[in-house]
Write a structure and sequence with these properties.
Layout (H helix, E strand, L loop, with lengths): L14 E3 L4 E3 L15 H7 L10 H12 L15 H8 L4 H9 L10 E3 L30 H6 L5 H4 L3 H7 E4 L14 E3 L5 E4 L5 E3 L9 H11 L5 H10 L4
Parallel strand pairs: 3-7
Antiparallel strand pairs: 1-2, 4-6, 5-6
């Protein structure tokens, strides 16, 4: 028997095994013993292999916990040639997308320009990340990391930034917590401070900006995105004011 418990034991019916916290599926022939649990309609729709099983209350908790705390494998290959170059080329782990491209013979391209993804969701649907508990004080009323939109609203109060749009801000400037010291005499060496006390530094090369594709079918999210990308603003109220003025929306 393999580590996945194949071939499966014979069973005249499908029932719940209290000891293993999972279902044992009907298995009455030798061929059945080598078939994983499945759901025929989904297999036909997906047109691919899929292991589908009933989930019990205790089994679900065990399954989720297993993957939440599952560590990355530390030793996948056993290479003892003491050749660091060969070790990197032969033994490095592949991501799923890279593996698919290689198997299909597709060309993998690298961008020569750094790409930055900007969120454009309205406040009511925007995802937020909670800061580590060690960084949150008892009187802190905002336990979340500042997102890109909030950082854009808090950009320096200087004329050159007043009429700068959201994409242009991150396309041409980067934020850092420490001042940069160099011998550059151009604008790249000038430091600005925003409302969150970040240092705002001019990029030497503009970034390529990406954001979620939306259309009219997305309703409010689409109009919010269009305003955010094209209207210089410092608060959500500025966007609402622009929405009331611009008859195109």
């Amino acid at each position: 028997m393999c580590k996945k418990n194949f071939p499966r034991p014979y069973s005249s019916r499908t029932y719940y095994n209290n000891d293993e916290h999972k279902y044992v599926h009907r298995c009455i022939s030798e061929q059945d013993r080598w078939v994983v649990p499945y759901h025929a309609p989904i297999l036909l729709i997906w047109n691919a292999h899929m292991n589908i099983q009933y989930v019990s209350t205790r089994g679900l908790g065990k399954y989720l916990t297993k993957y939440v705390v599952k560590p990355e494998p530390s030793h996948v290959f056993n290479i003892t040639e003491d050749d660091k170059y060969r070790e990197h080329v032969v033994a490095r782990r592949l991501g799923s997308m890279e593996c698919i491209f290689l198997l299909l013979g597709e060309t993998i391209c690298n961008s020569s320009v750094q790409v930055k993804y900007l969120p454009t969701e309205p406040p009511t649907t925007r995802s937020r990340s909670i800061r580590p508990i060690s960084t949150i004080s008892d009187d802190d009323d905002d336990p979340y990391w500042k997102d890109a939109i909030e950082k854009y609203f808090a950009r320096p109060h200087i004329e050159k930034f007043d009429n700068m749009t959201y994409p242009d801000y991150f396309k041409n400037y980067r934020l850092t917590t420490r001042p940069q010291h160099n011998n550059d005499t151009s604008e790249h060496k000038h430091l600005y401070r925003d409302d969150f006390n970040y240092y705002v530094v001019k990029r030497k090369s503009p970034l390529l900006i990406r954001y979620k594709y939306l259309n009219l079918k997305n309703g409010e999210s689409f109009f919010y995105q269009q305003l955010l990308l094209s209207t210089p603003c410092r608060t959500e109220n500025d966007l609402l004011a622009a929405l009331a003025i611009d008859k195109n929306f």
